[in-house]
């Protein structure tokens, strides 16, 4: 048993190390191609700044970028938590009742197809220019993949298992918690991973529509002033935030499900 757990731990560490190496190699290749393009084509800085200019912008504006990155990070994390709770609750309700499934699931699927840019201005009107509209925007983008993935996974649990639970005297609620909910856990994990990847989109889109802080706010003002190096610096920080959120989610999944290799 001990050797098995130790082997699983070594496997996870090896997988994490391999992913880190791939990320580093990909980053080096991307920066190299980026530098080659800016040097070879001799593009003006306002069109495409070279990597060194972006690095200088990161250093020169580090305090301003750090403050706004903290705002966006808070919106992403809170939105992820709210979206996870709401999506899980919806999926459980759908799996618990055929009537709820027939009413709620089509609405969730149709609403998911609406472009986020159409929803963001309405949320700003309803909730104002503060953090609330950005958190709700992030939560909405996170909510849909979690709700649909978990609900569909639970509904695919074999009916024989549900019949077996009822045969042993389990109520509908007990069968849901003991059979369907754990049986669809892989779907929940898949939904959370997708949500963690797209989580920054909701916060940034909300900030683009109307905000006084955040990386989206920095991007808009930098673009208006043709400060493309600052714009790229904000994009770089946003990418780091997205990778960090996904990495944290993968680590949590690895601990909860050590037999399941993180994608």
Describe the structure.
- The protein has helices spanning 2-41, 51-60, 62-96, 98-112, 116-127, 131-155, 159-167, 172-183, 185-209, 215-224, 228-256.
- The chain is an all-alpha fold and 263 residues long.
- The longest helix has 40 residues, at 2-41.
- The radius of gyration is 22 Å and the shape is elongated.
- The protein starts with a helix and ends in a 7-residue tail after the last helix.
Short synopsis of the structure:
Helices cover 84% and strands 0% of the residues. By secondary structure, the chain is mainly alpha-helical.
Low-confidence stretches: none
Q: Which structural class fits the helix and strand makeup? A: mainly alpha
What is the CA-CA span between the terminal residues? Answer: 25 Å
Radius of gyration: 22 Å
Overall geometric form: elongated
Strand content: under 5%
Strand segment count: 0
Helical amount: over 70%
Largest sheet: none
Helix count, DSSP H or I runs of 4 or more residues: 11
Mean pLDDT: 85
What order do the helices and strands follow?
HHHHHHHHHHH
| Subunit organisation of the chains | single chain
List keywords for this structure.
263 residues; mainly alpha; 11 helices
Compile the SSE list and pairings:
Blueprint: H1 2-41, H2 51-60, H3 62-96, H4 98-112, H5 116-127, H6 131-155, H7 159-167, H8 172-183, H9 185-209, H10 215-224, H11 228-256
Helix pairs in contact: 2-11, 3-4, 3-6, 3-9, 3-10, 3-11, 4-6, 5-6, 5-9, 6-9, 7-8, 9-10, 9-11, 10-11
């Amino acid at each position: 048993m001990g050797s098995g757990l130790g082997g699983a731990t070594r496997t996870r560490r090896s997988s994490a190390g391999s992913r880190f190496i791939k990320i580093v190699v990909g980053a080096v290749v991307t920066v190299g191609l980026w530098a080659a393009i800016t040097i070879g084509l001799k593009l003006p800085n306002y069109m495409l700044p070279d990597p060194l200019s972006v690095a200088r912008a990161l250093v020169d504006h580090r305090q301003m970028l750090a403050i706004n990155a903290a705002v966006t990070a808070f919106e992403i994390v809170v939105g992820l938590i709210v979206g996870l709770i709401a999506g899980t609750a919806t999926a459980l309700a759908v799996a618990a009742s055929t009537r709820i499934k027939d009413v709620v699931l089509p609405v969730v699927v149709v609403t998911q197809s609406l472009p986020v840019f159409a929803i963001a201005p309405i949320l700003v009107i309803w909730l104002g220019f503060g953090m609330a509209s950005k958190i709700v925007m992030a939560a909405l983008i996170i909510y849909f993949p979690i709700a649909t993935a978990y609900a569909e996974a639970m509904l695919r649990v074999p009916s024989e298992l549900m019949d077996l639970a009822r045969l042993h005297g389990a109520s509908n609620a007990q069968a849901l918690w003991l059979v369907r909910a754990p049986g669809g856990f892989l779907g929940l994990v898949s939904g959370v991973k997708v949500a963690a990847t797209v989580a920054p989109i909701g916060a940034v889109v909300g900030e683009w529509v109307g905000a006084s802080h955040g990386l989206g706010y920095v991007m808009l003002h930098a673009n208006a002033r043709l400060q493309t190096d600052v714009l790229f610096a904000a994009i770089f920080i946003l990418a780091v935030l997205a990778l960090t959120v996904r990495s944290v989610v993968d680590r949590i999944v690895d601990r909860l499900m050590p037999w399941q290799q993180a994608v």
